[in-house]
Amino acid sequence: MVKLVVGLGNPGKEYAKTRHNVGWMVLDKVANQFEEPFSKEKFKGVIAEIQSPHGKVILLKPLTYMNRSGESVAEAVKFYKLNPEEILVISDDLDMPVGKVRMRKEGKHGGHRGLMSIEEKLGSSRFPRIKIGIGRPERKEMVANYVLQPFSKEQLPIIEMAIDEATRWVTEIIDGKPIEAKTCSF
């Protein structure tokens, strides 16, 4: 049973609508659906507490910036005495096309520095994850700038559908549906 849902992103208005912040975008929608605001600063992040049919579920948006997300997650895991399997992490993925959404029970970081930080701090990669494809820039040296830019006008409706689908999956998991491997594309 998932007890902590983490959306990866970067704090600050300048990052709010960027590709790297799709995890935060999903959590914002989930919090809105449950009418629970992100009202507390805790665990080097902001949290919203949701009452599910199976107990309390914490939504966490780390404020440590992407590369140090594991610090925030590790504090929450320690406080709530959670196993990695009780954490669901939502992140962007450069290696999937824009609009592809994938859920797995566990996996590898694939070079994603936020996931890498979490795996390092937890000492495990055995946590469920939802990845949302943001595509890759044409040239490799542009990756750092690319992830910190907003989606193009053409990509925006596609990514909004992907975020809505990921939000639906998270809501179902909070309501008690077991995590299963699945993929969809828009």
UniProtKB/TrEMBL annotation:
<dbReference type="GO" id="GO:0072344">
    <property type="term" value="P:rescue of stalled ribosome"/>
</dbReference>
<dbReference type="GO" id="GO:0005737">
    <property type="term" value="C:cytoplasm"/>
</dbReference>
<dbReference type="GO" id="GO:0004045">
    <property type="term" value="F:peptidyl-tRNA hydrolase activity"/>
</dbReference>
<feature type="active site" description="Proton acceptor">
    <location>
        <position position="20"/>
    </location>
</feature>
<keyword id="KW-0820">tRNA-binding</keyword>
<feature type="site" description="Discriminates between blocked and unblocked aminoacyl-tRNA">
    <location>
        <position position="10"/>
    </location>
</feature>
<dbReference type="GO" id="GO:0000049">
    <property type="term" value="F:tRNA binding"/>
</dbReference>
<dbReference type="GO" id="GO:0006515">
    <property type="term" value="P:protein quality control for misfolded or incompletely synthesized proteins"/>
</dbReference>
<feature type="binding site">
    <location>
        <position position="67"/>
    </location>
    <ligand>
        <name>tRNA</name>
    </ligand>
</feature>
<feature type="binding site">
    <location>
        <position position="65"/>
    </location>
    <ligand>
        <name>tRNA</name>
    </ligand>
</feature>
<dbReference type="InterPro" id="IPR001328">
    <property type="entry name" value="Pept_tRNA_hydro"/>
</dbReference>
<feature type="binding site">
    <location>
        <position position="15"/>
    </location>
    <ligand>
        <name>tRNA</name>
    </ligand>
</feature>
<feature type="site" description="Stabilizes the basic form of H active site to accept a proton">
    <location>
        <position position="92"/>
    </location>
</feature>
<comment type="function">
    <text>Hydrolyzes ribosome-free peptidyl-tRNAs (with 1 or more amino acids incorporated), which drop off the ribosome during protein synthesis, or as a result of ribosome stalling.</text>
</comment>
<comment type="similarity">
    <text>Belongs to the PTH family.</text>
</comment>
<dbReference type="Pfam" id="PF01195">
    <property type="entry name" value="Pept_tRNA_hydro"/>
</dbReference>
<keyword id="KW-0963">Cytoplasm</keyword>
<keyword id="KW-0378">Hydrolase</keyword>
<protein>
    <recommendedName>
        <fullName>Peptidyl-tRNA hydrolase</fullName>
        <ecNumber>3.1.1.29</ecNumber>
    </recommendedName>
</protein>
<comment type="function">
    <text>Catalyzes the release of premature peptidyl moieties from peptidyl-tRNA molecules trapped in stalled 50S ribosomal subunits, and thus maintains levels of free tRNAs and 50S ribosomes.</text>
</comment>
<keyword id="KW-0694">RNA-binding</keyword>
<comment type="subunit">
    <text>Monomer.</text>
</comment>
<dbReference type="InterPro" id="IPR018171">
    <property type="entry name" value="Pept_tRNA_hydro_CS"/>
</dbReference>
<dbReference type="InterPro" id="IPR036416">
    <property type="entry name" value="Pept_tRNA_hydro_sf"/>
</dbReference>
